Amino acid sequence: MEQSFGQSNFASDVAPVAAASAPDLVCLSHLRWDFVYQRPQHLLSRFARRGRVFFVEEPVFGEHPPHLNVSQREAGLCVVVPRVPHGLAGEALEDAQRDLLGQLFATEGIADHILWYYTPMALGWTRHLPGRALAVIYDCMDELSAFKNPPPALQSREAELFGCADLIFTGGQSLYEAKREKHPQVYCFPSSIDVPHFAQARGITEDPADQSSIAHPRLGFFGVIDERLDRELLDGVAAARPRWQLVIIGPIVKIDPAELPRRPNIHYLGAKSYQELPAYLSGWDAALLLFARNESTRFISPTKTPEYLAAGRPVVSTSIRDVVRPYGEMGLVRIADTVDEFVAAVERALVEDAAQRLREVDALLAQMSWERTWGRMRELLEDVMQTRRKAIARVASAATTA
């Protein structure tokens, strides 16, 4: 269901989500809710059990006047998509987004609220939002400035966000080390794991249709396919072992698909839903983290690492810092960078003692869950809001007695 409203109209095709005792949370994201199910979805769907969430995406351009599309994904959570005319840019674009968000606040009755940022660029259209922010959170899940073609103002906007945020969360240890001196309250929350979901792969015996005809041994990778994928390594491994079948799952973004290596034993199966991933994992003999070592991967903490492990697959990865620590150091993931090293690591993984590995994996994963991660984040958030409410109450009391 979807509702749409713009500068002078509002169509209530969807009933507004019922207000809850918790303040509303307005998330500003560079990611699309329906793109890949990852950290924002895991965290914010949990907040939506207690209060309303408005997940505001980056604008979509088209032949139409400025308006918002608001659609409900699950109880308590709405996805908000600004739609603006082609050619709108710079201050005019930010003004349009600011006006549209102001209308969202008015229409949905958003008053006391939490601002939750995934992109510092959103500061350009959220500085003067109506209502009262009880907390401002920056969940820094990636070093966006290291990605391909970052906005020129990104670093200055991030510095501004560090100046106004109450809490900074980082998506991994490397990011934490890079950000911890920039704010008094920076907390490391590596992306976690829904263990029961991915552990299903250990018991699934039926292959998805588009994977069933692919021979073994099967080596797999899932994730966004972009500039972070080590294409030379993928091509080199496929060339070195023509009998190995490499299954690559995920959407292709920011790179030309023609630049991807093409060999008979490399199979690009496209994007799959979060629900489908265990079925694909169940048919792999090993899972791969084929990340290049460059600026765009310097601070990443791949969520797929514990997901692969929970699925019961042996894992081989390039030397991504947040994979080496702790997974490589614990002996749960083999680390290799060159083609020869990677091939040798996979060969060892294919004949290892799976029972021993699974015992060690399960002991580690027993300490990890998105529920635990969100629970700790919520505690910190509640502390900030309690302090803010007390300050507001003192100001109100002083005003009435003046």
How is this structure best summarized?
The protein has 402 residues and is of the alpha/beta class. It is built from twelve helices and 16 strands. About 4% of the residues have low confidence.
* Regions with little confidence, pLDDT below 50 for 5+ residues: 5-20
For the termini, the CA-CA separation is 50 Å
As for the CATH topology of the largest domain, it is Rossmann fold
Compute the gyration radius: what is it?
23 Å
Helix content: 25-40%
Name the beta content range. 15-25%
Global geometry: globular
Order of helices and strands: EEHEEEEHEEHEHEHEHEEHEHEHEHHH
> What is the number of domains?
2
Going by CATH, the architecture of the largest domain would be 3-Layer(aba) Sandwich
Biggest sheet details: 10 strands, mixed
Tell me the total number of β-strands.
16
Total helix count? Answer: 12
How would you describe this structure to a colleague?
There is one protein chain. The chain is an alpha/beta fold and 402 residues long. It has two domains: 2-192 and 371-401, Glycogen Phosphorylase B (Rossmann fold), CATH 3.40.50; 195-365, Glycogen Phosphorylase B (Rossmann fold), CATH 3.40.50. Helices cover 34% and strands 20% of the residues. It has twelve helices and 16 strands. The protein has helices at residues 39-47, 90-108, 154-164, 173-179, 195-199, 231-240, 277-281, 304-310, 321-328, 339-350, 354-365, 370-401; strands at 2-6, 24-28, 53-56, 60-62, 67-74, 77-85, 112-117, 132-140, 167-170, 186-188, 218-222, 245-249, 266-270, 286-289, 315-317, 333-335. The strands form two sheets. Strands 1, 2, 3, 4, 5, 6, 7, 8, 9 and 10 form a ten-stranded mixed β-sheet that branches. Strands 13-12-11-14-15-16 form a six-stranded parallel β-sheet, with helices on both faces. Helix 6 links the parallel strand 11 and strand 12 (245-249). Helix 1 packs across helix 12 (370-401) and helix 6 crosses helix 10 (339-350). Mean pLDDT is 92; it is low at 5-20.
